[in-house]
Amino acid sequence: MSLDVAATKPHERLAQALAPEMAAVNAMIRERMASEHAPRIPEVTAHLVEAGGKRLRPMLTLAAAKLCGYTGDYHIHLATTVEFIHTATLLHDDVVDESDQRRGRPTANLLWDNPSSVLVGDYLFSRSFQIMVETGSIRVLGILADASATIAEGEVLQLTVSRDLSTSEDTYLKVVRGKTAALFSAATQVGAVISGADQAVEQALYDYGDALGISFQMVDDLLDYGGTEAIGKNIGDDFRERKLSLPLIKAIAKSDADEMAFWTRTIAKGKQDDGDLEQAIAIMKKHGALEATRDEALAWSAKAKESLQSVPDHEIRTMLSDIADYVVARIN
Amino acid sequence: MSLDVAATKPHERLAQALAPEMAAVNAMIRERMASEHAPRIPEVTAHLVEAGGKRLRPMLTLAAAKLCGYTGDYHIHLATTVEFIHTATLLHDDVVDESDQRRGRPTANLLWDNPSSVLVGDYLFSRSFQIMVETGSIRVLGILADASATIAEGEVLQLTVSRDLSTSEDTYLKVVRGKTAALFSAATQVGAVISGADQAVEQALYDYGDALGISFQMVDDLLDYGGTEAIGKNIGDDFRERKLSLPLIKAIAKSDADEMAFWTRTIAKGKQDDGDLEQAIAIMKKHGALEATRDEALAWSAKAKESLQSVPDHEIRTMLSDIADYVVARIN
């Protein structure tokens, strides 16, 4: 392995290994986001899909299909489908969160309006099912319809428990499976299904996507409070938005009456002053909430790698394993 | 036929003829709108589905299946699916239109919030695909995925041409097919498909739903300007919302320079004063725009009835024909 290759990040190595397939996916995305009658649809979609996301989810589908020795064309369809569902979710999330920035650019709802984000999201979601239908696989349709329902359910759950100090880790995990892990696990699973992989391999790839997605979200939660070491940049968004993220849930579980009064004021009632974020982090550190979140993120990353033991030995398997390491590299 | 029966409306007679099937559909709606993790989902859904809509769309699916002699259970699934897609559309429409009333009750986005309406709509849409998957019919999935894409595309198109005085009747028809007719025609078509009806019958039932939906929307457009006779109650909403409905498009096509200046001020720029609605109606009448809209609505209703000539003779066929008459009865 040359130094150059060693220096690239694992998702970049995966992108290199899947370059022809990803080119086909990008071509299909451009082709299928078109609308004969409503030119706003490709405008809004292009703003988002060309914003330089890593395309991790469609790559997971392509990787799973390649690992399983798939030789047909439908992995391109399914990877496109997964990216369309993801894009539809982002469009609706920005309306739900009233966001004005995503990937460092103004959101579609800011550049156009909320109606465009809602309706273009609906269009992409419908398009994704049209593309799935072309594969002729009812099982694939079932898996992605289930994932879509889990995503929406997780988002509604997040909405209803937001600012609720009694949120349990169990509820947190349901929200995270909806927000993040459901599409990761469906992405890898449909790659196996379309390849006719046996049940053990399909389950292993599902488990990998599920654990990777959960680890991914826990790392995000942790970094938003600066990680376990020094306080980094751009921290505190979750605190200001009063999100019941894992470090907060773990801290609340061990808080005394004074600390609970602090959480009630800052999170439940949303009355935040200067110094409150530092105080929140101090309480989290005192109770080992950041360390415990880190341990869980690492455990899910390890679980993702373990799942890969049941899939065929392949250079792609090594890359997927490296991605599971990479997700937690920032906190390890 | 007793006087009692003669006095009922055709959609009520259809509801009577399909009472056992509609009971099964209502049971499935209640069962499938549940969410183990997010109780807000059934709350929001129940608010809408129990608001006393006529359930015309699911009845069209059941009617088509019955006409075609279907003996299985999947017509219940498909009728539920059609109602879920319709409900999801209504939830998103209320966010798009910033409505606060639907069917005489406060909208879900007013009672809860926009995020709930967006996400519960997404959930119902995903659920509808899950239920379709249970039928095992890829063709049905294709038809309803296509209809969903047409709906979203029509709504985006409506958004982008709103207040645009150059909107053509061709564009209007595309918007109407999206907003209304696509789900009507898919509802009847999937009833035929699940029954294994031959191609001619399937096409006839598709054509019936398409023409019925278009007629339905044109009648709505006309009544919003008071119809061709006296000025009724609750008119002028489309004028105030500056919608390019059919009477307006037809009037614009024949307007002189002074009249165009009036449309530019009131519709394109939205500067409306007392007396403008009366003036708009006067211009429409002068150019025969209301009469011409009425004629088109009647022609689409006739086309719906004509389509039924290719389907089996059956009491349900008579009821569908009567529904096509009933839709235009208010303007005839």
Structure notes:
Chains A, B: Belongs to the FPP/GGPP synthase family. Two copies of one chain form a homodimer. The first copy, chain A, is an all-alpha fold and 332 residues long. Chain A has helices spanning 3-7, 10-17, 19-32, 40-49, 56-67, 74-97, 108-111, 114-135, 138-161, 169-194, 199-223, 237-240, 246-253, 257-268, 276-286, 289-307, 315-329, and strands at 101-102, 105-106. A two-stranded antiparallel sheet of chain A has the order 1-2. In chain A, strand 1 and strand 2 (105-106) form a beta hairpin. Chain A is globular and about 60 Å long. The first copy, chain A, starts with a helix and ends with a helix. Chain A binds chain B through residues 35, 37-41, 92, 95-96, 114-116, 118-120, 122-123, 125-127, 129-130, 132-133, 136, 138, 141-142, 145-146, 148-149, 151-157, 159-160, 171, 174, and chain B through 35, 37-41, 92, 95-96, 114-116, 118-120, 122-123, 125-127, 129-130, 132-133, 136, 138, 141-142, 145-146, 148-149, 151-157, 159-160, 171, 174.
